[in-house]
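Methods — Computational structure assignment.
A single polypeptide chain was analysed. Its primary sequence is given first, followed by the predicted tertiary structure written as structure tokens.
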Amino acid sequence: MKIAMLARNANLYSHKRLVEAAQERGHEIEIINTLRCYMNIASRRPEVWYNGEQLPQFDAVIPRIGASVTYYGLAVLRQFEMMGVYPVNESVAIGRSRDKLRSMQLLARDGIGLPVTTFAHDPKQTEEVIRLAGGAPVVVKLLEGTQGIGVVLADTERSAKSVIEAFRGAGVNIMAQEFIKEAGGSDIRALVIGGKVVAAMQRSGAEGEFRSNLHRGGSARAVKISPEERATALRAAKSLGLNVCGVDMLRSNHGPVVMEVNSSPGLEGVEKATGRDIAGKIIEFIEKNAKVGKTRTKGRG
């Protein structure tokens, strides 16, 4: 098979592992810098050009689109979809996952456990937003943040109000969430591939840090998840339409609650914590599912 991977940094662990896994199985794989692609949006003849040449027809595309280039990256991915190339995750599904508010709304619609989440545009509603989220302490999140950036724990009503008003005054969209104290600064990441949880790890924050992201100095270990946690991860992936994703959950007193669904999960932490060949499982998924024109949404957002 000929596989394209949309990625800007070929040297990242996840990208090197995917290349290794594809080549070990006899596939041809090319890493394409997303931002260097340009498109000929011609009627009935969609084309993608790269470094002065028209790209050949690929069988499948692995989108590893960075959060900072989501808009352009999804435009490129849609072009591949309209050319009949099979995407590991479809552009529409990635778009849902990257919009934190929309993803929460979709998960809530499908009855998936969530922390209480509130959102408002007018800073005058700040006190009501905090009250609806259960009062301080409250977690304030930028809607566009990733890897724990733009996530603040406000311990008191006064600090929560100050943080929310500061963000809103700067014209930044934020949401406030219930703080799950009983999680103890740890979360569960379940890796879902093709409707199955293939690995799970527990991430714990560094000393004095409530965020458990590995990029913020957290640690990870393999963990056995409960049937309820497994079912929650699978339902979350299905709700957003993602074939491959990392579902981040907290263990609350009322069961697992989903914090985020990541459509481009890093592979280093989970592979090293669990010893599982996640990259190989992604390539196996492509082998079983990649067919020309199989994209459900055909690039329609």
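Note: The CA atoms of residues 201 and 270 lie 6 Å apart.
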